[in-house]
Task: inverse folding
């Protein structure tokens, strides 16, 4: 059976060219970058090189890159680190309603420490209105966090505009760019961000590595203690193989983006058009301000679990929204935030394309979905074929 992987928002395969640059650091080049001898210097050079590449990809200076264990840690460091550094000044944080849990849960944690969190709603397409952010900023606001692109519905947020508003008020602005990296150009100056989170395994690099961009002069308290690594911002011996791999992955993503992004966007649009021919289906997320690889659709009268199981049996990997909420029966906070009724949200699947996906794959999955949706509906006691698609 031919298997088709359509869950690239959850994780991507490691590019063989990335594996290639990692292997020496798992073998003979095992030095600790903190050591003064030749082994140490060899490792240090690899870390420095990767730092230059990652910084260059987002228009940053290498000294502004802090390597972390992934985007979860980068988001936690951004939110909690900013809060700890600023708590004397204020204890108010603004986040969008559709942030990843890696941003939302640190915020929740901070409420137990006397911080107040304001959630900014999104419209039906998942867009944050910069004016809403302007209205809720206060004198005691210390952080605004709005993601660059949403991991479930693919909507690309007006980060530059929001950043300008935050900056104008002297408030630190963080963006989780985990899904955007490698799929759209990112420039920290154009985006007006102080902090930006990234992850290796979403860009064909290894898992367990990521980075936080910290604009020069931005105060972020450290909370991993016990070493002076990462300019005293994140203690612990550097994960040299993963850092080298992350650097190579970012370099490749940058090279491939001019061809890959439009190629995947065209496949995405073909995919969406084909799926929307199925009756009572709807596209979630913005129709055009959307990641080139993201398709998120709901089918009335179905449930995600049955759809995903049937797709998996047919060799197709998809997801019910975010990987972190799969397995739970609650509708995701993102689908709720865009106003989907629970019974519509219940029948939602996310299909995310990647470098290996072809037009033939897309056409095959459209046909499969047509059959699977029909059979799930045939088994549903409540499905009425007269229901009309809303979009
Ligand atoms: C995957 C993801 C994360 C978590 O990244 P890890 O590197 O797996 O910790 C955070 N934010 C977004 C938007 C993501 O898609």
Result:
């Amino acid at each position: 059976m031919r298997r088709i992987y359509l869950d690239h928002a959850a994780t991507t395969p490691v590019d063989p060219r990335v594996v290639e640059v990692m292997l020496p650091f798992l073998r003979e080049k095992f030095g600790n970058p903190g050591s003064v001898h030749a082994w140490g210097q060899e490792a240090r050079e690899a870390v420095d090189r990767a730092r230059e590449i990652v910084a260059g990809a987002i228009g940053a200076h290498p000294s502004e890159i802090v390597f972390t264990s992934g985007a979860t840690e980068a988001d936690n460091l951004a939110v909690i680190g900013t809060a700890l550094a600023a708590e004397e000044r204020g204890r108010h944080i603004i986040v969008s309603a559709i942030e990843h849990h890696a941003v939302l849960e640190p915020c929740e944690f901070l409420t137990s420490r006397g911080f107040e969190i304001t959630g900014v709603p999104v419209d039906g397409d998942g867009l944050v209105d910069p004016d809403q952010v302007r209205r809720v900023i206060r004198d005691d606001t210390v952080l605004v966090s709005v993601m660059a692109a949403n991991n479930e519905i693919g909507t690309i947020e007006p980060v530059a505009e929001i950043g300008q508003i935050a900056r104008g008020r002297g408030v630190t602005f963080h963006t989780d760019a985990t899904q955007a990296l490698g799929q759209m150009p990112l420039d920290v100056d154009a985006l007006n961000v102080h902090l930006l989170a990234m992850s290796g395994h979403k860009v064909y690099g290894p898992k367990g590595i990521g980075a936080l961009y910290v604009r020069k002069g931005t105060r972020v308290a450290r909370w991993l203690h016990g070493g002076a690594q990462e300019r005293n911002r994140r203690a612990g011996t550097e994960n040299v193989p993963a850092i080298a791999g992350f650097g190579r992955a970012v370099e490749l993503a940058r090279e491939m983006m001019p061809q890959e992004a439009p190629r995947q966007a065209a496949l995405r649009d073909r995919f969406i058009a084909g799926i929307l021919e199925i009756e009572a289906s709807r596209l979630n997320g913005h129709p055009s301000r959307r990641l080139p690889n993201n398709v998120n659709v709901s089918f009335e009268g179905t449930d995600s679990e049955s759809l995903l199981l049937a797709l998996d049996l047919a060799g197709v990997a998809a997801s019910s929204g975010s990987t972190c909420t799969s397995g739970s029966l609650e509708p995701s906070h993102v689908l709720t935030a865009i106003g989907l009724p629970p019974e519509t949200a219940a029948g939602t699947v996310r299909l995310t394309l990647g470098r290996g996906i072809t037009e033939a794959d897309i056409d095959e999955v459209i046909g499969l979905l047509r059959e699977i949706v029909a059979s799930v509906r045939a088994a549903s006691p409540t499905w009425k074929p007269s229901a009309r698609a809303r979009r």
Remarks:
- The two ends are 34 Å apart (CA to CA).
